């Protein structure tokens, strides 16, 4: 078993990401980009929404990431009959003592996977709102803090499938990123076949912890200190403003989306070994930050216009600052 990275040795976020990726690659194939986004979310105290058809390893990816990161992991299988108390917990009467005892729900974990979140009713979906924003829950008037780090990874089936409830705008906005997992390319699927043919029992349980909590906290500090110059700030503000002004959009990115650009771009720069953010860091995060936050105008929905196409158009239309890298590294 490999030794988890220590904060002293691996304050560099690149070491944290490399350790997680190499360990996850023992089980996953072709998941480098999703793992990078999950790592950025972990370093920025964010949450991730993963969409894909059944069977593309959405839940497995979250499980493997949690195990490699040393995070306590719980999975909540969302169904139409699950209640908010099944997520947060409740007070249970104990007959031997004649007293009520707090029974904490599965939300009390470092990494909570809300599997098929859009199969739960909106009332149950909203049970995660306070947890995701405040990192605490209120159970029958008592407010309890959640563990640190705390991260929600929700999976969902495409909204075109039957038996699903679209997430309300307030819920979607609390997810820092949304990523879509597609059916793998043939070469990757062949590699999956070969790997599981050689080891049919291979699964998340084969993943070992390679990062300790101290390393995560140290990497978070490094990411937070990454320099964000005024030109890059203006660029990300222009992107969010363009999402609000687009003719096919009724409601664009929120101020929470703007802050997601700030924190996410800093973390991405740190993962690339830079002490400063460049426009490419912002551009790379435009799709996962904006695509689930856009509320399309009625005409756009009827015309079949997709949010991903709108975000791509916005990125093409908004001109990034044309400066040398030294300018982004310099103090404002």
Automatic annotation (TrEMBL):
The keyword Coiled coil does not apply. It comes from the Archaea. One of its GO terms (molecular function) is ATP binding. Pfam families: AAA_3, AAA_lid_2. InterPro entries: AAA+_ATPase (IPR003593), ATPase_AAA-3 (IPR011703), CbbQ/NirQ/NorQ/GpvN (IPR050764), ChlI/MoxR_AAA_lid (IPR041628), P-loop_NTPase (IPR027417). Gene3D superfamilies: Magnesium chelatase subunit I, C-Terminal domain, P-loop containing nucleotide triphosphate hydrolases. Keywords: ATP-binding, Nucleotide-binding. This is AAA family ATPase. It comes from Halovivax cerinus.
């Amino acid at each position: 078993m490999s030794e988890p990275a220590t904060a002293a040795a691996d304050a560099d976020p690149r070491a944290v990401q490399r350790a997680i990726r190499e360990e996850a690659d023992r089980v996953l194939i072709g998941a480098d980009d999703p793992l990078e986004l999950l790592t950025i979310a972990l370093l920025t105290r964010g949450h991730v929404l993963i969409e894909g058809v059944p069977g593309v390893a959405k839940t497995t990816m979250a499980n493997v990431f949690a195990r490699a990161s040393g995070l306590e992991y719980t999975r909540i299988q969302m169904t139409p009959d699950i209640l908010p108390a099944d997520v947060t917990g409740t007070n249970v009467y104990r007959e031997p003592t004649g007293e009520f005892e707090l029974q904490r729900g599965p939300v009390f974990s470092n990494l909570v996977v809300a599997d098929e979140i859009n199969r739960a009713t909106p009332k149950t979906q909203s049970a995660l709102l306070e947890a995701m924003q405040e990192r605490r829950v209120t159970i029958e008037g008592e407010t309890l803090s959640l563990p640190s780090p705390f991260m929600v990874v929700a999976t969902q089936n495409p909204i075109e499938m039957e038996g699903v409830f679209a997430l309300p705008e307030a819920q979607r906005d609390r997810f820092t990123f949304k990523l879509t997992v597609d059916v793998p390319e043939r070469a990757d699927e062949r590699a999956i076949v070969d790997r599981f043919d050689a080891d049919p029992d291979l699964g998340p349980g084969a993943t070992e912890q390679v990062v300790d909590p101290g390393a995560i906290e140290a990497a978070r500090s490094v990411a937070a200190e990454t320099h964000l110059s005024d030109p890059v700030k203006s660029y990300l503000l222009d992107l969010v403003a363009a999402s609000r002004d687009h003719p096919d959009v009724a409601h664009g990115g929120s101020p929470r989306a703007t802050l997601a650009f700030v924190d996410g771009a800093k973390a991405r720069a740190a993962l690339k070994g830079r002490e400063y953010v460049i426009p490419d860091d912002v551009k790379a995060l435009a799709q996962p930050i904006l695509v689930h936050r856009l509320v399309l105008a009625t005409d756009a929905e009827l015309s079949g216009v997709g949010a991903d196409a709108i975000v791509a158009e916005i990125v093409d239309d908004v001109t990034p600052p044309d400066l040398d890298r030294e300018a982004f590294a310099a103090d404002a």
